[in-house]
Every structure is written in structure tokens, then in C-alpha cells.
């Protein structure tokens, strides 16, 4: 059974096997968590992402999918990039958000990662309401069939921490 822990802080400072990046489909860096991971991890992550774009993901990584690269200078072995959906009031995209967590854990299993740190995927510029994102994230990780021993949700601020804590109880 996977242990779920919550911390408030900077995901780029976590010592884990794999850090999950809330990436954009280009895989070439962006704002928020994505930008922070690329900045702190250094150029090796971007080089790996460029190789992925040149080979398997010429049109970018599809929403809900995940792929791994080196972690560069981060205190992790890998970065697992996943593309969260943009929030919509017109269409239920909850399954795509859940897929980000499932696919990231699937990739972690393929890599042999036992400890994984997740951000609150899609809650930044993609606008997903924090309480709903927390519900989907915690439920999906709890229900996942994975060899990952510990998932840490690394939450940027107190509001995010409280939303995830309410779901984890």
C-alpha cells in the first residue's frame, strides 16, 4: 500500500526518486512548477525533453499522459512530466486529470521509483479549482495499483495544503 504524505514547500527541493512536473505539452519549459523544475534542474532536463520532441512526441505530449527524463541537478533520479488539462465549466475533464496521476505512477513503476513527489497538477495557470483537484489527486493515488511506496504531495501554499489535507483525512 502506498503511503501518502503532504508537505507545504518547494517541489524542486525534495529528495525523492522521481519528481512529477506539471508540464505543458511542448515539454520545453513554462511557468509555475514547470519553470521552477527546469531552472533548478538545469539544461540536462531540457536536452532530454528536446530529444523526446524530436523522436516520439513531435506534436507534444498529449494531455493526461506522462513521460520521464533525467532530473539533472535536482535531488531526484528522474522527472516525470505530465500534461494536465485546462479546467472547463463546459466539459468534464476530470478523467484527464486523474490520468495524469495514474500515468505518472505507471512511469514511476517502469523506472523502479519507490518515492514520488507530485505538485497539484492543473491548479495553476490551467485554473482547476483546488478542492476538486485535491479530491481527484488523492482518490486516484489511493486507488492506483503501483509499487511506489510513498507519494508526497508537495503543495505550494497553505490553501493548497489545506485542500489536500481535507481529502487525505
From TrEMBL:
The Macro domain is annotated at 1-169
Q: Which PROSITE patterns match?
A: MACRO
- Reading the lineage from the top rank, the first entry is Bacteria
Q: Which InterPro entries match?
A: Macro_dom, Macro_dom-like
Q: Which Pfam families match?
A: Macro
Protein known as = Macro domain-containing protein
Amino acid at each position: 500500500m502506498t503511503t501518502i504524505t503532504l508537505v507545504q514547500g518547494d517541489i524542486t527541493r525534495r529528495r525523492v526518486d522521481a519528481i512529477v512536473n506539471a508540464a505543458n505539452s511542448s515539454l520545453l519549459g513554462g511557468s509555475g512548477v514547470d519553470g521552477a523544475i527546469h531552472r533548478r534542474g538545469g539544461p540536462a532536463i531540457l536536452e532530454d525533453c528536446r530529444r523526446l520532441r524530436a523522436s516520439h512526441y513531435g506534436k507534444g505530449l498529449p494531455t493526461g499522459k506522462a513521460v520521464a527524463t533525467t532530473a539533472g541537478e535536482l535531488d531526484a533520479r528522474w522527472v516525470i512530466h505530465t500534461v494536465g488539462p485546462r479546467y472547463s465549466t463546459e466539459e468534464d475533464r476530470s478523467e484527464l486529470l486523474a490520468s495524469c496521476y495514474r500515468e505518472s505512477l505507471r512511469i514511476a513503476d517502469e523506472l523502479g521509483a519507490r518515492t514520488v513527489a507530485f505538485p497539484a497538477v492543473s491548479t495553476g495557470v490551467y485554473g482547476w479549482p483546488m478542492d476538486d483537484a485535491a479530491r481527484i489527486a488523492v482518490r486516484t493515488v489511493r486507488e492506483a495499483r503501483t509499487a511506489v511506496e510513498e507519494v508526497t504531495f508537495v503543495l505550494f501554499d497553505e490553501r493548497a495544503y489545506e485542500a489536500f489535507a481535507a481529502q487525505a483525512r
